[in-house]
Amino acid sequence: MLQPKAGYQNLKDSYLFFGISRKIEAYLNDYPGAHLYRMGIGDVSLPLCDAVIRALHQAVDDQASRDRFHGYMPECGAPFLREAIARFYQDRNIPVLADEVFVSSGASDELGDLLDLFEVSSTALIMEPAYPAYVDANIMAGRKIVYLTAGPENDFLPLPDDRLQADLIYICSPNNPTGAVCSRAHLQAWVDWANDRGAVIFFDAAYEAFVTEDLPRSIFEIPGAESCAIEICSLSKTAGFTGTRLGYTVIPRKLVRRGMNLREMWIRNRTTKTNGVSYILQRGGAAVFTPEGQEQIRRNIRIYQENARVMTEALARIGIRFWGGTNAPYIWMQCPDGIKSWPFFDLLLSRIQVIGTPGVGFGACGEGYFRLSSFGDPEDTKEAARRLVELLC
Ligand code: PLP
Q1: To test the ligand 1 pocket, which listed residue (236, 244, 375) has its Cβ within 8 A of the most ligand atoms?
Q2: Which residues of the chain have pLDDT under 50?
Q3: Residue 270 lies in a domain
Q4: Which of 21, 165, 221, 372, by CA, is between 20 and 30 Å from 33?
């Protein structure tokens, strides 16, 4: 009899966001119309910038014109967008070529799909607390996972050691959920480790645009990364594309394992399994990389950064230990007085109507922590910060 993929039976219930929405629903049943301060969301609240909207409209008009109409797009991405993204790297002295760039429908799609390149017998290394999709995509595939615990003892940035054994290494920097950002020395240690062992790093750079200090935004800033890393990027948080859907992946030509070139394998994969991202969206995406687009998305990012500043200032006033919030849109706070993540969620909801994300939802070692997001409305953020101070000071 047909055997469905057994890994699905090993998935834990995705309790985190379901649990949050159930508790909010119950609260609103008891207090209809109550205003909630949503500091839990990983979704953006500002609309797409004007440059993108104009490009999208223009592209719709192109599709209405016999001369400018586009049918199927190249599976790996339109040359105009691949070149714009390559230039975005080259302008920062990172030698990425257009044919090493793959346009995608978003980072989460890619993080799942890229696993196609590796035998299921390979082992994934995931540093927890982690973006839950890393874990679930590997469990679905039936792959063994090795967990490395991040905590205050390593500032949520664990380093490799000689005892570790794994083939696929997930690094997310700036990190969701902890807001921790890897230094160059830190990434160099992982790059050297991966090259020594023939491992491959999945570098999730979904939040690279939030780095403002002199810290790496791309793993390809690190010598040796071109022979061991794949970078997965997204326009979701950078440019507000969460609902529009667009991302990109960089696979260097030099990435070869057991004589097999991973970039060529990915071309074969994409040309078999996709028919490319829509012309309209790719035109909108290309507008992000114009000087005007960069200026406009930076303006939005600054609003989120100001939200993070307001929140971290409040936590500092209360005297709560936290990580992130600078160079990252997430703030990872220790729950006060040893309270666990879910009781702290309940306390904030019931007493001050502030919603965050319980840290335990990102792995067992997230127990006792809480994630606040800076993607919310600025006025709500200010009021949430005021309420936090009032409750916890
Ligand atoms: N990677 C990380 C670390 C994320 O936090 C998210 C979304 O929250 C994604 C990837 C998904 O990005 P996308 O919207 O491009 O699928």
Answers
A1: 236
A2: none
A3: yes
A4: 372
